[in-house]
Amino acid sequence: MKIFIDTANIEEINTANEWGVVDGVTTNPTLVAKEGKDLRALINEILGIVDGPISVEVISTDSEGMIKEALEMSNWSENIVVKIPMIPEGLKAVKILNENDVKTNVTLVFSVNQALLAAKAGATYVSPFIGRLDDIGHDGMQIIHDLMQIYNLYDFKTEIIVASIRHPLHVIESAKAGAHVATIPFGVIEKMFKHPLTDIGLEKFLKDWEKSKK
Ligand code: E4P
After folding, report:
1. Secondary structure (3-state) at 122
2. Once rounded to an integer, what is the mean pLDDT over residues 3-30?
3. Who lines ligand 1 at CB under 6 A?
4. DSSP H helical ranges for the chain
5. Of 17, 66, 180, 209, whose CB has the highest number of CB atoms within 10 Å?
6. How far is the CA of 86 from the centre of ligand 1 (A)?
7. Name one GO cellular component term (predicted).
8. What is the per-residue pLDDT for 213?
9. All structural domains of the chain
């Protein structure tokens, strides 16, 4: 399973990238707005750090506007993946962008049927938001299991990005389901490192080593 980092924060991207665990980056308008920087300049910085797919979202809600934005963004680098919202105008844009070899990530996906339509339209990636589904009392992960089954049955080329990940268990469940990608916030990647026995074990090794030198 590929790991993308779900942030637009340069420090977080740099740190996780140095750990050697980052295959790509996903951003969204909320994450970009938090950084208070010019979009193009920010994405350029990210492109200079991670050599992998970088998702950037359009702001337009009509297909013509989305296509215009997407064509411009895709010129920034071949690593750009354009995020398109899961609305009818969005899929209209995805169809045309796919025909023009522009990579797309259909976002704000909350149901299996939405993801099925996105794959039919030719999306490169689809992003079901599992945490936001859990928040309203649904089982977000079930969508990932269902989609893996359906995409495999019909050999869809669309890759599933598990998005809106809230905790390390979501990552384990994504990997067990065979998801192609999990896009993970920095704080959750940090938590994936942690085990008290690692810290206790390291402290003891170092103490024993010091003692042996006395
Ligand atoms: C995905 O690409 C989105 O950026 C993200 O996962 C949304 O997560 P949130 O529900 O934590 O905002």
Report:
1. coil
2. 98
3. 6, 26, 28, 107, 127, 129, 131-132, 163-164, 183
4. 10-18, 29-35, 39-49, 63-74, 88-99, 112-121, 130-135, 140-154, 168-177, 186-193, 196-212
5. 66
6. 14
7. cytoplasm
8. 87
9. 2-212 (3.20.20.70)
Residue 169 tokens, joined: 């268990």
b/e code 84-113 from CB counts within 10 Å (16+ = b): bbbbebbbbbbbbbeeeebbbbbbbbbebe
pTM strictly above 0.90: yes
* Ligand 1 atom closest to 55 (CA): 2
List CB contacts of 140: < 8 A, sequence separation 6 or more: 128, 129, 130, 131, 132, 133, 134, 164
pLDDT tens digits, residue range 93-135?
999 999 999 999 999 999 999 999 999 999 999 999 999 999 9
